[in-house]
Amino acid sequence: MHIDPLVWLISLGVAGAILVVDVAVVGRRPHVPSTAECVRYLALYVGLAVLFGLGVWATSGGQYAGEFFAGWLTEYSLSVDNLFVFLLIMGRFAVPRAYQQTALLVGIILALVFRGIFIGLGAAAISAFSWVFYLFGAFLVWTAWKVSREGESDDDEFHPPLLLRLVQRTFPATNEYHGVRLTVVQGGKRLITPMLIVLVALGATDLLFAFDSIPAIFGLTSEPYLVLMANLFALMGLRQLYFLLGDLLKKLVYLNIGLGVLLGFIGVKLLLHALHENEVPFVNGGEPVAWAPEIPIWASLLVIVLTLGVTAWASIAKTRRDERAAIAAGADAPQG
Fold it and tell me: What is the pTM of this model?
């Protein structure tokens, strides 16, 4: 897939313009967005992603369009998991809802930066070393096993990463928020505010999630342009989705299992691709492994859609069963 440099510039320019508008809206008036506002923006971003995918189909064919849609859906599902952690961070640090928009926006910008860096590194590694697919595949299978072991997503405790713990130990901080300011002067001393600590927590979380998301999408497409655009569209609208879903995210109790299945499938796909294109001397004498199949993109897209659909359906069904059981238990309890 050949992408003209002008197309790269236009794509990045449009994405940057959307981000600038988002920053201007939040910066002008920090507020809790209404449901109507969230729905409008979310519909716009999802519509733009679908139109982009259709544009890829019209200009480059169904193969690349399928790769984009598969990558976008995978990154979106991983971003929802990221959003769940954001929800825990906001609760852990008691961020006022009026300031959560600003924190989320900065978190999304940091996610874009980290993913952009990893996309560049991943593309360079793939072009230079064919065996890197073995590493990506093994890493995703290990990640899938680790994520699936967590089972249901019912852990409401935020586990601070090392970087955040170092910041909290090193720098004196105020106990209260001062708007969206990151530092204040009190008693002649410069102190950091809880908002800065929240942004560090979001940034550290983004960095950890980038390790999972980038190898996953390179398992679906090796085109850096599609990888970048899938990530951009997956991160657009996350701020609105956060306020639209809110505590409903906690009802996705099987999210970890679904993501584990998804990452495991992509990891196996990567390993099979590495065997199919094998050039490693100590594997089959450096020759491609004939029995290793190439999983077509339509099959990958089908697995992704079915996995996400079953995960959502099973989570909702279990939540409803638990709610009915709780109501029944309350009705059967003796009245005192």
Answer: 0.73
